[in-house]
Amino acid sequence: MKIRKNEIWAAYQKEIADDKYYFARSCIRQNIFPAAENLFINILRDITGKDIFDDKRQTTCTGIAYHSGLIPMETIMTVVARQFALMNQAGYENFVVSCVTSFGIYIEMLETWKHFPETEEKTREALIRATGMTFTIPANLVHASDVIYKFRKEIAEKAGFRLVNSKTGEPLRVIDHIGCHYAKIFPVHGIGGAEYPYVLAGMIDEWGGSQVDYPERRHCCGFGFRQYLLKSNRSYSVSNSKKKLDSMLPYKPDLIIANCPGCTFFLDRWQYVIAEMEGKTYSDNGYGIPVLTYEEIAGLLLGYDPWDIGLQVHQVSVEPLLDKLGIPYNPENKYKGVNGEDLGRPALPEVLRCH
Amino acid sequence: MASLYEKLEKDVRFKEGMKACMNCGVCTAICPAAEVSDYDPRMVVNIVQVRDESELEMLLKSDTIWRCGECLSCKTRCPRGNVPCYIIQALRALSIDTGFFIESEQGRKQLAIKRTVGDHILKYGYCVYIDEVDLETYPEQGPVWDWLRNNRESMMKRLGTSYGKESSGTLRNTMKESLDDLRRIFDETGGTQRFEKIEKYSSEKAKELNKEFSEGQDEYWKFIYNR
Asked: Which site among A28, A39, A59, A118 would you substitute to test the B interface, given the most B Cβ atoms closer than 10 Å to its Cβ?
């Protein structure tokens, strides 16, 4: 029987709870882009009026170590079970995951429990022995980018800016980069599946930008877990990022938007490394391509101050993007501390231009 | 005593990932690790499905199983439902369990990961923690990170985090009760035992290589991390 395209698409829709979320934080995001998660929470609370619970008792899911061959599956399963138990204790049933690695972990453990029920039983026993806790499985488990996708129209309605060049009126050319573990492991859990993920593309479409399709659009950023964690192995990581960046370069992108903490980090930092090592930058002006998360883009369009949402801690300067969008900013405030004190300036790279 | 293959078969990831491979090579075509090294997931799956114990032992003692980046792109692509990455995960676990990991240069590097990310989990409750990420260890972090890190007391407040605080919020201090839970979960489920095995086998190798071995970033750590 011939399957119509819209029927294939229907198979890759997923339920995203409407309200009352338990928030599971990301190790990388909290450290590398420390304002991003608060921005996500603030957008949900202040712009869409939703309830999201931030639990001081949660810990890492250990996913980075698990995917480096360091943590036994039984251990990470029990850590995951503890996070679910915390959600239960807080009175929530909708679990929102900030990290794509973690999102893949949570889905993988749920699927494993489904296929091998004895592993769920053992996990329950281990959790009780270790912590005295019991748990019920979340009613709904999604990634944080799924939630922004769900509310993309409301965000567009309240936004003062669009992904449009304010001088020419042309849509900005936007690259979407989806973290591998969002949908490549379990395509049915990603909006659009693994082949045509729409979670970020939907935001680009709704917010006025133009999607860029390029040959290596679905290639991994090159994190590689242990391959990045070891200094001796990092050529793996930078080589794969470079493959992507080289592939997108002819399309002259204005912006990269990513939904995975690691990908955001690597596509930003490896541009600096490639510039310093090879003298190559990925824009005509020598600044490179800004790499932002979905909520950072939403925040900008909604009018949050770029320096209050932490855009000064990206290595690739965002000012060329702000200028295109027509978003006002005060350069004097970029490097000020909590009390307005001047904190000096980061050292300038030799090749990559920075503001 | 159970054969290596029988031990592999007990791992649910192996059960899920090893169906029947027809050697089409699609996994290798899509693999980012194969892109940058001589790693070939098709070969790994084929060696395993042949069930030759001596070949399997060689694999467990080789650099090969440590080349995978666990992106799991192979899972999406295999037309027969195999998952080379799941097989790799099971092989890595067995390599540490048997102590074979110490026989390869890449396998030996597990100690470096244990003493960074592994120890951070139990010390901070995070896999990654800003206080530990310096430019010497992570030079690609670059000058903006260095600036942020040097000014973190002020900047983390400006960006609305809970860095150093006992409360909810970004980068809060993980509560002692939560760290204790993590420690007991590790004790109950084999995490602690795996860490201890990595340390034990590594100390033997360090002695053989005449490298100073104690804790943290000792001579042996620097040798395996940088080289």
From this structure: A59
